[in-house]
Amino acid sequence: MILTAHQPVYLPWLGLFHKISLADIFVYFDQVQYLPKDWMNRNEIKTATGPSWLTVPVLKKGHRERKTSEIEINNEIDWRKKHLKTIKNNYCKSPFFEKYIPFFEEIYSKTWLKLTDLNEYMLKWFLNELDIKTKFLKASDYEFKGSKSGLVLDMCKKLKTDLYIFGKMGRDYANINEFENEGVKIIFQDYKHPTYKQLFGKFIPNLSIIDLLFNCGENSAEILISGNISKDIIQDTIRTE
Description:
Elements: E1 2-6, H1 14-21, E2 25-28, E3 42-47, E4 50-55, H2 79-91, H3 97-107, H4 115-129, E5 135-138, H5 148-158, E6 163-166, H6 176-181, E7 185-188, H7 209-216, H8 220-225, H9 231-240
Parallel strand pairs: 1-2, 1-6, 2-5, 6-7
Antiparallel strand pairs: 3-4
Helix pairs in contact: 2-3
């Protein structure tokens, strides 16, 4: 069984969806410590003047000591209206604007209390649109123990994992020997970002998945995995080693 995991992210980039598509099970890690100025509550889209942040404001009292599942959105700020307006203004001329904008109108018409609930709802919708069938689990439904590499290994053992997929930054903290001793193979994703036709001139990589969807529609899934390792190759690795 192939496993991967990631903390909640607002409007994720393409690389996360590629990583999820490689796995049999994805764990939505809503129990990690909240990281301010990270990707948990913000991401970038493309505008006529370049990349622009969309940031969900959170209540900051004690937020550095809280798990992501405990982080509350600051709804005293009218962020939903701003985000919807920014998306509409910058993607209204994209080929697939009419196909996807109703979802964002729905999302931003609701009052969201917890950041993790908003991110989970959107992530599941993106996965469905990209036809990624990976099983979705939440860390908060389990009792994984440890920190960093040890936490990942405990998760792998409890979910009976054959192979775990780390992101590129996993090389900075993964204890490879501990995984090998437990019979768990690991690989590190090295995502090669594709290019595709965007609005507003020169191509800009590493934006939110919504940039790809609005510009490429039903071709988005094929584009985001192009030039990258496939699940079939990973499965062959498990069988032959």
